Amino acid sequence: MSTEHLFSELQLAVQRLLEKNQQLSSQLHQLQEQHELLQLDVLEKDEQQEQLQQKMQTLLTTLSEAAGR
After folding, report:
1. b vs e for 35-69, b when ≥16 Cβ sit within 10 Å of the residue's Cβ?
2. Which residues form a coiled coil (predicted)?
């Protein structure tokens, strides 16, 4: 193989690697955005869970007080 041919093959391989790197970077960015959205969703669900637990505790306290009368 000639040096020019090897250099052309190397250039092509480097170009493919750069394109693949761009694709992977784009995928990583999308996954990071999805992760952030999921984290926000989990925080929201945790907050809803906490509010529900507080309401249940209030209800139990009210029922206990009513039963004690």
Report:
1. eeeeeeeeeeeeeeeeeeeeeeeeeeeeeeeeeee
2. 7-48
